[in-house]
């Protein structure tokens, strides 16, 4: 008797996909049920400077100019709004913006009109720029709602 005669022919093993599909649908249902919608982040009305230096800039001057000064390593040294210095205090900057914009009624009227131009040092780290944009854009109110401040933010050509 040979060895080949005692072996049974190879049989195809089939996988049952039903449990795997059930798990996928359970995960999908879980994530759909637990998903929370938050205020939109990163949705800013930002105008970048024009690429070519020979092209004329817009004729409208910005309402406010926020200058962000950095040291050689890219750390923020000073925030200057128009002619006032805030050091690195974003809270004081936001208080000043809130005082300029006013209450909710005037914010709807003026918040969309006031334009801020960010003049950043070239070596400034981006996290400082994002934090400044967040500070200028709005804040979280006492009941947890997002209260918008300024809508128009643009960048000046980089400095240094």
Task: Describe the SSE topology.
Elements: H1 3-6, H2 18-34, E1 45-47, E2 64-70, E3 76-81, E4 84-85, H3 90-101, H4 104-111, E5 115-120, H5 126-137, E6 138-140, E7 146-148, E8 152-155
Parallel strand pairs: 1-8, 2-5, 5-8
Antiparallel strand pairs: 2-3, 3-4, 6-7
Helix pairs in contact: 3-5
What does this structure look like?
It is a single chain. The longest helix has 17 residues. A 6-stranded mixed β-sheet has the order 1-8-5-2-3-4, with helices on one face. Strands 6-7 form a two-stranded antiparallel sheet. α3 runs parallel beside α5. A hairpin with a 2-residue loop joins β3 and β4. It is 33% helix and 21% strand. It has a domain of 102 residues: Nucleotidyltransferase, domain 5, CATH 3.30.420. It is of the alpha/beta class and 160 residues long.
CATH class type of the domain at 45-51 and 61-155: Alpha Beta
Mean pLDDT: 78
Classify the secondary structure makeup into a structural class: alpha/beta
CATH architecture of the domain at 45-51 and 61-155, by name, is 2-Layer Sandwich
Query: Widest sheet: strand order?
Result: 1-8-5-2-3-4
| Number of helical elements | 5
- Beta-strand residue percentage: 15-25%
- Rg of Cα set: 28 Å
Topology, number of strands: 8
Shape: elongated
């Amino acid at each position: 008797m040979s060895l080949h005669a005692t072996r049974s022919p190879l049989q195809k093993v089939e996988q049952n996909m039903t449990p795997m599909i059930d798990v996928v649908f359970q995960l999908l249902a879980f994530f759909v049920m637990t998903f929370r919608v938050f205020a939109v982040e990163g949705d800013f009305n930002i105008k970048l400077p024009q690429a070519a230096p020979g092209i004329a800039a817009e004729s409208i001057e910005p309402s406010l100019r926020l200058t962000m000064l950095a040291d050689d390593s890219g750390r923020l040294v000073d925030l200057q709004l128009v002619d006032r210095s805030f050091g690195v205090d974003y809270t004081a900057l936001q208080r000043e913006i809130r005082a300029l914009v006013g209450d909710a009624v005037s914010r709807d009227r003026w918040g969309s009109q006031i334009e801020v131009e960010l003049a950043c040092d070239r070596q400034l780290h981006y996290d400082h720029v994002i934090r400044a944009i967040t500070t200028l854009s709005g804040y979280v109110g006492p009941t947890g709602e997002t209260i918008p401040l300024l809508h128009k933010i643009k960048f000046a050509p980089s400095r240094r």
